[in-house]
């Protein structure tokens, strides 16, 4: 009996690189992790043990380092897209290249109120991300098509008040009490796509991050869901080049500790952080176009 290969992809994962850009005495540090995944005509490698069309994953790693030498890797979107284009343009049998890049945050060290020119401190768990999916053009000479998604992950935020949760559905298993004063803690993951190429990728990223943080703390939060909508709405209002944005914001609980056995009160002072279980909330918001209904589907004739 013969069998058919119906799907495949392969590539190189977690290619880490550190690049130092020197502008006189001031140095700029970028540290990335890059994944490359290719799709195309690789059937013989699986079904006939024929490696003649296999691009070694070691070659992919070397390509990443070589391109990092020539390209400003601080432009994550440009770096990812250029890598993807290289693979679909250089190899006839490669039909798609997916390149994912995440940047570890390093902050410039501040000494006596001044930013140090070449010393840095760990910026925490937050990472900037981008995923480029590049498709081989249907006609020779055409530019590759595809999709580009920017984002961030690991952005931990918390506010100690001005948040509540009440008037929710109840059944026989509900024990949660209404509250108008609780800690709201979450770790934001965000991704967004563009309807046009912005003039400055890094500037847009910085503005989106600042908008998300501002809106998180701006007003009373009746729920994670409502705050997510306000944050997303603010980004779409401020950035015309952003077509849609998706947020994931787990509700990372801080539970009020019962101190009554010790004859102590606890007026929202001592809490126990709980990582698991936690509420997991995500949603995507996009611009509403005249040809779409409220579910995002086109009008039917």
Tell me the helix content: 10-25%
Shape: globular
* Beta-strand percentage range: 35-45%
> Which structural class do you get from the secondary structure elements?
alpha+beta
Distance between the termini: 47 Å
CATH superfamily of the largest domain: Urate Oxidase
- Tally the beta strands: 10
Q: pLDDT below 50 for ≥5 consecutive residues: which ranges?
A: none
Oligomer state of the chains in this structure? single chain
The largest sheet, given as strand count, sense and whether it forms a barrel, is: 8 strands, antiparallel
Mean pLDDT score, rounded?
Answer: 94
Task: Write up what this structure looks like.
The chain has 301 residues and is α+β, with helices and mostly antiparallel strands. The protein has helices spanning 43-47, 57-70, 76-90, 201-218, 224-238, and strands at 10-23, 26-40, 94-111, 114-135, 145-159, 184-194, 242-248, 254-256, 271-273, 282-286. The chain has an eight-stranded antiparallel β-sheet with strand order 1-2-3-4-5-6-7-10. Strands 8-9 form a two-stranded antiparallel sheet. Helix 4 (201-218) packs antiparallel against helix 5 (224-238). The longest helix has 18 residues, at 201-218. The model has no long low-confidence stretch (mean pLDDT 94).
Main attributes?
single chain, 301 residues, alpha+beta, Urate Oxidase, 2 domains, 8-stranded antiparallel beta sheet, two-stranded antiparallel ribbon, 5 helices, 10 strands, globular
């Amino acid at each position: 009996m013969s069998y058919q290969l119906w799907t495949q992809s392969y590539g190189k994962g977690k290619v880490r690189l550190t690049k130092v850009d020197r502008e006189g005495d001031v140095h700029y540090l970028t540290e990335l992790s890059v994944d490359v995944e290719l799709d195309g005509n690789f059937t013989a490698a699986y079904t006939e043990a024929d490696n003649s069309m296999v691009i070694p994953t070691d070659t992919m790693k070397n390509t990443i380092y070589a391109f990092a030498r020539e390209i400003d890797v601080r432009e994550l979107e440009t770096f990812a897209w250029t890598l993807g284009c290289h693979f679909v343009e250089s190899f006839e049998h490669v039909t798609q290249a997916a390149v994912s890049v995440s940047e570890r945050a390093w902050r410039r060290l501040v000494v006596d109120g001044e930013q140090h020119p070449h010393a840095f401190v760990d910026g925490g768990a937050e990472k900037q991300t981008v995923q480029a999916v590049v498709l081989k053009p249907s006609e020779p000479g055409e530019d590759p098509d595809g999709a580009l998604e920017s984002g961030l992950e690991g952005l931990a935020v918390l506010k100690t008040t001005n948040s509540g949760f009440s008037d929710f559905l109840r059944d026989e298993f509900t024990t949660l009490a209404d509250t108008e004063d609780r800690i709201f803690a979450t770790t934001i993951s965000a991704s967004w796509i563009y309807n046009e190429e912005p003039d400055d990728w890094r500037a847009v990223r910085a503005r989106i991050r600042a908008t998300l943080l501002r809106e998180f703390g701006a007003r009373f939060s009746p729920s994670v869901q409502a705050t997510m909508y306000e944050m997303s709405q603010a980004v779409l209002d401020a950035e015309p080049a952003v077509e849609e944005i998706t947020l994931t914001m787990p509700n990372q609980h801080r539970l009020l500790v019962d101190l009554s056995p010790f004859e102590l009160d606890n007026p929202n002072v001592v809490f126990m952080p709980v990582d698991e279980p936690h509420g997991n909330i995500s949603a995507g918001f996009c611009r509403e176009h005249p040809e779409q209904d409220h579910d995002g589907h086109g009008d039917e004739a």
